[in-house]
Amino acid sequence: MATKKLLEQFILNEVKKAFKEAQEKEEKKASSGFDFNFFKTLGTIPARLNYAKKLLEQLGAGLGSSRETFKLSANRVLKIAKNEAGVAQTEAELEFIRNNSIPRNFTTIEEFDPKGNWIVAELVKPFESEREFAIETGINYQFYENLIKTIQDRKPQNLQSLLFIAEHDLEEANNKIIELKDAEDFKSQVALQDYEDTFSELEPFVHRLKALLKSKTQYNFMMKIMNLLERGLEWGDLGFSHFGKNSKGEILIYDYGFTTDVYKKYYKASSSDRDSNY
Ligand SMILES: Nc1ncnc2c1ncn2[C@@H]1O[C@H](COP(=O)(O)OP(=O)(O)OP(=O)(O)O)[C@@H](O)[C@H]1O
Ligand SMILES: [Mg+2]
After folding, report:
1. Helix 216-230 vs helix 141-154: crossing angle, to nearest 10
2. Residue 116 zone, left/alpha/beta (φ > 0; ψ -120 to 50; rest)
3. Hey, CA dihedral for 151, 156, 159, 161, is it positive or negative?
4. What domains can be seen in the chain, in order of their start residue?
């Protein structure tokens, strides 16, 4: 019994020691003498990346196609372009930032290189799953994905008019099902199956859209997304992994430079799949 207790105490002490060491290492890196003024004088991508890698903690290493991110402080990151697409994505983000008429649902940029080589942005904790997105926003992720695709397809003026469109389509499918129900020829039976499929997809969509319109927070969340879609942000930057929470608990997009222009200029040739950025 006494041995068991001693062992438990020993394990606890070891865990505490390891935790303390990890924390000290973190703190050391955070105050490791990273000199921003010196960083600003660096003229090449490898020089910037090497200097940051040596002195700062890296976040999501290699996850981005065009930029690398480093922790500058408890609530700020330094994002460094690692190629031309990174400069273009950073410039696209700066465009969004400069336009004050866009409702803010993206991370603020505190400082930037006029040439787009780096930015200092607000730190967030990125969402790790569709489930986390759903829990945090209250919006089912499959529905959200469907909603964005439908908005891109139908280009409604607002979410209320999208509901009218969807309700109209649902009614039309229902009428066709009634009309074709007793038909015996093959062509009509195929058409009936099509309308039945449409109906069973649309019914939950309409139901969820109605619920979304009733929720002020969900509605506001989606209206801001619609605004960004209208301004050319691609689906590639709107998936769950592009959202995170800041220290105030706000849900923000932290990676919003993948616009249609950037896609066409830097990604289209290397990818046949428009969504591959996501
Ligand atoms: N504001 C932030 N706070 C915390 N982590 C961040 C932030 N911005 C980026 N990251 C981390 O750095 C990684 C790379 O950044 P980001 O996704 O913006 O690069 P990107 O090259 O623009 O990506 P993509 O190829 O998807 O456009 C992210 O996957 C994430 O892990
Ligand atoms: Mg990006």
Report:
1. 40
2. left
3. negative
4. 20-126 (3.30.200.20), 130-247+259-267 (no CATH)
Average the pLDDT over 212-235 and give the result. 95
Q: What is the mean pLDDT of residues 183-212?
A: 95
- Enter the pTM of the model: 0.83
Residues with CB under 5 A from ligand 2 (ion): 89, 255, 257-258
Summarize pLDDT for 20-34 with one digit per residue, the tens. 666 555 555 555 799
pLDDT value at residue 269: 76
Cβ atoms of 81 and 117 within 8 Å: the answer is: yes
What does pLDDT average to over the chain? 91
Where are the extended beta strands (E) located within the chain? 57-59, 67-73, 76-81, 109-112, 118-122, 125-126, 243-245, 251-253
d(CA 87, CA 117): 6
Amino acid at 261: D
Percentage above 70 pLDDT, the chain:
91
Using the atom order of ligand 1, give the atom closest to the CA of residue 121: 1
* Torsion angle in degrees (nearest 10) through CA of 223, 224, 225, 231: 110
Angstrom distances, CA of residue 186 to CA of 14, 54, 182, 183, 190: 73, 69, 12, 8, 6
Looking at the DSSP bridge assignments, the partners of residue 70 are 58, 78
Ligand 1, residues 69, 108, 122, 263: which to mutate, most atoms within 8 A of Cβ?
A: 69
* Centre of ligand 2 from the C-alpha of residue 120, in Å: 15
Q: Is 274 helix (H, G, I), strand (E, B) or coil?
A: coil
Of 122, 100, 62, 139, the closest CA to residue 244 belongs to: 122
276 — pLDDT class (breaks 50, 70, 90) = very low
How far apart, in Å, are the Cα atoms of 206 and each of 221, 235, 251? 18, 21, 25
